[in-house]
Amino acid sequence: MITFFTPTNIHVIYYNKGKRTIRVFRAADGLLIADMKCPAKVRQAIATSDGQALVVGYEDGAVQMFLIVDRFEPESIEHLKNWRKQQWEATVDEPVQKEISDKQSDLDI
């Protein structure tokens, strides 16, 4: 079992070794905001300094990152949207980005 608070003390991370699940709880009220099945046994887990991501190392050597998103917190949803946009922009070349952003601005009302 691994249990710890994120550096911001907003969430509690709980890993159940028997079930191989990671659960994320909101510390303020204990609300479960995430329940994930792990593909292998967890050897190490750490939250980023801003408390918005969890990095997990598995027994088989794989590493996985989870974004911590609380669907009841508008700031958390906004962070997810911005993160997705940054990831998309990092993978698409400049002319395609311009074309997509032009089309997207036409759709934004």
Descriptive overview:
By secondary structure, this protein is α+β, with helices and mostly antiparallel strands. The protein folds into two domains: 1-69, Beta Barrel (Thrombin, subunit H), CATH 2.40.10; 73-109, no CATH class. Helices cover 29% and strands 36% of the residues. The protein has helices at residues 74-91, 94-107, and strands at 2-5, 11-16, 21-26, 32-37, 42-47, 53-58, 63-67. The protein has a four-stranded antiparallel β-sheet with strand order 1-2-3-4, with no helix packed on it. A three-stranded antiparallel β-sheet has the order 5-6-7, with no helix packed on it. It is globular.
Question: Which SSEs are present, and which pair or pack?
Answer:
Layout: E1 2-5, E2 11-16, E3 21-26, E4 32-37, E5 42-47, E6 53-58, E7 63-67, H1 74-91, H2 94-107
Antiparallel strand pairs: 1-2, 2-3, 3-4, 5-6, 6-7
State the gist of this model.
The protein has 109 residues and is an alpha+beta fold. The mean pLDDT is 83.
Percent of sequence in beta strands: 35-45%
- Mind telling me which CATH architecture of the largest domain this is? Beta Barrel
Helix content: 25-40%
Order of helices and strands: EEEEEEEHH
Order the strands across the largest sheet as they lie in space. 1-2-3-4
The overall average pLDDT, rounded, is: 83
- CATH class categorisation of the largest domain: Mainly Beta
Question: Number of folding domains?
Answer: 2
Q: Write down how many β-strands occur, each being a DSSP E stretch of 2 or more residues.
A: 7
